[in-house]
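Record type: monomer structure entry
Structure origin: computed from sequence
Chain ID: A
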Amino acid sequence: MPIIQSVRWSDDGSGVRIVDQRLLPGDLVERELRTLDDVVSAIRTLAVRGAPAIGIAGAMGLVAVLAPNAAAPRDALLAAARSAADAIRATRPTAVNLPCALDRMLACAARVSGDGEALIAALRSEATAILEEDRAMCRRIGEHGVSLLKDGARVMTHCNAGALATGGIGTALAPIYVAAERGLAIEVFVDESRPLLQGSRLTAWELQGAGIPVTVLTDGMGASLMRERAIDLCLVGADRIAANGDVANKIGTYSLAIAARYHDVPFVVAAPTSTVDAASETGSEILIEQRGDEEVTRIGGKQAAPAGVCVYNPAFDVTPADLVAAIVTDRGIHRPPYRFA
């Protein structure tokens, strides 16, 4: 069961190698990020995406950006690190993983004594640890979440919360991968996830490559499928979870949760503990990224709406905690009432 690896060090260790997810499913192309412009552009344009993956790419990218200047004075490198981190942080404001990873890298830099070479070495070690911890985290989510899946389960998911979105086997897809490893027959239904089609382009491609049965539907078909009693569980990821259990995830998640509640389908969120933002008491405090009109008005490079029409294009929505049956993290399965501190 081959599972794609979305982000890792380049072969010579001087850059970050990513799968360019903008080109999937048509072309599997890997890119190397070596400059600040490379890193910022890759995250902003969704060449690399998924909350855990952009945190990893941001941390590793910071090393790639600073490494060529390892001979600079330590204070100059620290200033450059802070400046680069600010630029990377600004690319995607909703997912908590990116600022957390960058804060961790800057804290590591501040602790290091010695010259620039020592600082770069420490940062490289820290970024590698973030990657390895994410891989282990994904595995733990899978081990905890697999208990929610029975043999023959039919699971609906939204967007992409698999290996492409993380450094490991994913978050929402991790229990499905673990179930497959254990010989359980799992069938996955994934909506397109408009406007950027992460479900049909990425999740379907990823699961098909791993040999897991997958069916694609449009975003408006989920409720009808649930009404036919064909779905046992909805399993989605998260980009940020508030202290009360409200969940920010890809736009369309809220609609799916409402449909799941009406049809008595358990709606489950799977995400790393690092996605919990205890500083946000409720989902109303989560900053929602607004993206460009062209993502909605153009499909496949062709005009799909009248020129100049008004567009509403938030990247995420917030699902209230009372619609969430369980939250699976690397620390276990959490049930309502949620209280993350």
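Annotation 1: The two ends are 37 Å apart (CA to CA).
Annotation 2: The domain at 7-139 is CATH 1.20.120.420 (Four Helix Bundle (Hemerythrin (Met), subunit A)).
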